Amino acid sequence: xxxxxxxxxxxxxxxxxxxxxxxxxxxxxxxxxxxxxxxxxxxxxxxxxxxxxxxxxxxxxxxxxxxxxxxxxxxxxxxxxxxxxxxxxxxxxxxxxxxxxxxxxxxxxxxxxxxxxxxxxxxxxxxxxxxxxxxxxxxxxxxx
Length: 144
What we know:
The structure is a single chain. By secondary structure, this protein is mainly β. The protein has two domains: 2-111, Immunoglobulin-like (Sandwich), CATH 2.60.40; 114-144, no CATH class. It is built from one helix and eleven strands. It has one helix spanning 121-130; strands at 2-3, 6-7, 10-15, 20-23, 28-34, 37-42, 59-61, 76-79, 85-87, 135-137, 140-141. The strands form four sheets. A five-stranded antiparallel sheet has the order 5-6-3-8-9, with no helix packed on it. The chain has a two-stranded antiparallel sheet with strand order 1-2. Strands 4-7 form a two-stranded antiparallel ribbon. A hairpin with a 2-residue loop joins strand 10 and strand 11 (140-141). The radius of gyration is 20 Å and the shape is elongated.
């Protein structure tokens, strides 16, 4: 890829507890480096990245993620062969705004026998006010 007229290769490193199985956008390749460390790099089909531009790369992880905290922040980018690393600004800090909300059971279920569903804010409030034993299943409580 060419960046500001110079042939280069930018590599993004991220920590994810699960293997990445599918890239949903942008021609990139994902490599497992070691442990939870993964590297995302452009393929030969990747087009130029103009200076100051942003790029969104969507992907899915294998298996399930129990919570947004399973996706670790502070991904960093380096130029191949360069020792300087820069934090990807959209992943900086610990608020995890870059992790999309979980909207499908396949995102949090551990398997076919998993009956757990995340509690809604209302369910959490009920657990705190009347006790966790009152919650029989999300949205259904016994008080009394």
